[in-house]
Amino acid sequence: MAPVRVRLDPSNRAEQVQACLATVVDPELDESVTELGFVTEVELFDGARNGEVRIGFRLPTYWCAANFAFLMADDMRRAVKRLAWVTRVQVQLGEHMYAEAINRGVADGNGFQATFGSDSEGDLESLRRTFLLKAFQRRQAALLQHLLDAGRTAAAVVALDTEALPTLALDAEGERLVERYLERRDLVGGGAEAFVDIDGRAISAEALPGHVRDLRRVAVNAEFNGVLCRGLLAVRYGEAGVQPIHIVRRPIETSARAAKVTHPEAHAR
User: Fold this and answer.
1) Which of 23, 94, 106, 238 has its CA 20 to 30 A from that of 148?
2) How far apart are CA 44 and CA 57, in angstroms?
3) pLDDT along the chain (269 residues), means of 10
4) pLDDT tens digits for 179-206?
5) d(CA 97, CA 66)
6) Distance, CA of 63 to CA of 77 (rounded, Å)
7) Could you tell me which residues come within 8 angstroms of residue 16 by beta carbon, excluding any fewer than 6 positions away?
8) How far apart are CA 221 and CA 214, in angstroms?
9) Where are the alpha helices (DSSP H) in the chain?
10) Which residues, 6 or more positions from 98, have their beta carbon under 8 angstroms from its beta carbon?
11) For helices 208-237 and 124-149, angle between their N-to-C axes, nearest 10 degrees
């Protein structure tokens, strides 16, 4: 999860929760769960249940991989729980073949293997790292291509270090790519060089063109999956594009009130 850098109104709890959720990414696509349209509802309680948050989310298909679903659900819970005023976070995955098990496991604070037992395959943290490394490669590919397209030479690019990278004179897109890349740069270690491979080894100017081509193969696969994912989501829920999140305030059955952040069509489902 990336750190929250948005300047938030301390009195606007819905805004704070949305900013936290925006830092959670689909592990395979490396895109925010909010930008993908996965978050359907955020319910904030006050009164006797002050500090409780309920998050509703969905996935493109009924059979999306359980380990990916669990990762996202647990990352949402952790991201929102960092807010000082939050006392409890309930994440509720809907319309998924493993929804009941995932919701229960996340609520109880159990890991993926404890939740699924002998049906779980592999270590979830190893899977998380695998996809973080792929995200590092995709972000590096995008930034390298941007710098080269702007006229920088291979020698100038590989000579950059991590301190110099954020000081470059870039357009808004370049600055965004630098910020996203640096969020993953420490994952692979190595020296002070800005650009290294997934083993932390520096890249030479001579090797850079081939390195970029190899990275693009990783990126193209993720881009295709992203398009497919959005298409499946649109077909399943009958939506054109990601729906805006609205804030709705209404009373609930107990003495507490709830502020809901929800897609307008969610009430019709």
Assistant:
1) 23
2) 15
3) 44 90 93 92 85 93 92 95 95 95 93 84 82 94 96 97 97 97 96 96 97 88 82 82 47 46 46
4) 999 999 999 999 999 999 999 999 999 9
5) 9
6) 22
7) 8, 10, 83
8) 12
9) 13-21, 66-81, 99-107, 112-116, 124-149, 154-158, 172-185, 208-237
10) 66, 69, 116
11) 120
Q: Which residues pair with 91 in a beta bridge?
A: 55
Which residues does 78 contact at the CB level (< 8 Å), separation at least 6? 1
Measured between its terminal Cα atoms, the distance across the chain in Å is: 30
**The token pair that represents 156 in the structure block:** 């100038």
How far CA 263 is from CA of 244, 252, 259, in Å, comes to 7, 18, 13
Q: What is the pTM of this model?
A: 0.79
CA 81 to CA 58: how far, in whole Å? 20
